[in-house]
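Technical note accompanying the year-one report. For the benefit of new consortium partners, we illustrate the data format agreed upon in the data management plan: each record pairs a sequence with a structure-token string. No post-processing was applied to the example shown here.
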Amino acid sequence: MAFFESKNFKHPYLVALVNKYCNIYERLRFNPHTTVADIIENTRDESDMFIYCCLISCHPSNTAIQMMMENPSIINPYHLTLNMNRCISPLLKMMTKNFEKKHWDTMAKSHNPVVLGFLLTHPDKINWNILCANESDYAIKIIQNNYVVQIMHNRINFDILSGNTNPKAFDLIENNSNSNPYFNINMLARNPHENATRIIREAYEYGNIMATETLENFSLNPGAIDTLMRYPELIKFNCILQNPGAIDYIETNITAEGYINYQHIIYLIRNTNGLHLVKRIIDEGLITLDTKMLKNIALILCRYNKSVFDYETMN
């Protein structure tokens, strides 16, 4: 029996799919409710030692941090860089000589300020392209604080920064430009900042032809819903299915007779607000799913939509 079968989940059927089709690493790694005790209980065999080390290394609890401090041999360098615990600094320093390029690049993706702070102490290891895509406030602050110097060295990637979905990325570009700020319009379509969505809307209203990439990114953008509803011809349906701000539109359109297919489900299960629709579609028999399809759905849910593990709200 998997460790979370008895939990009071909001989406028990979808959790059951994850439990059935995903391996123990995936079930433990991506479930935010996993405890150190769960890891120990489910990785007892000697053959599971690698999985055990990976899971302990990225577990955000103070217990896991203490276990690694007492026994550094269990640390997996890659998974350590994924850890969100803010007491991780001594472990990062301890493992510095073990880090390779792929580990430094993973640090640049981190939303943990301590991991990013450690990366800053090794400026020659920073991948600025990856950092420009990092949506955390701390990453934006690092770029802001190093803006002038890194522009001089051509390290600020404005194409990537334009597509950063943190609204502060838009402000960063706009406020640090001497004249007209440079935005990559295709990438900017992802940014929910009200001025970013205004630029896209006005470009369309002025008669500019919207590239497919622009329309796809705009349909993914939670801040673009008003414009998309005003100009539905801009909507790329597979993309808006993933938009957590478009649930009313999705609910109205996806259940139209004969309109649902397996590909729609694959996109919808990435939507943090759309899982109730997935269950409804399956319960009502609006689509037939074979074992291969169900396994793929389970893997995507487990890896990309942690809301599948949400508990039912108790009144």
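Partners are asked to follow this layout when depositing records. The longest helix spans residues 291-304.
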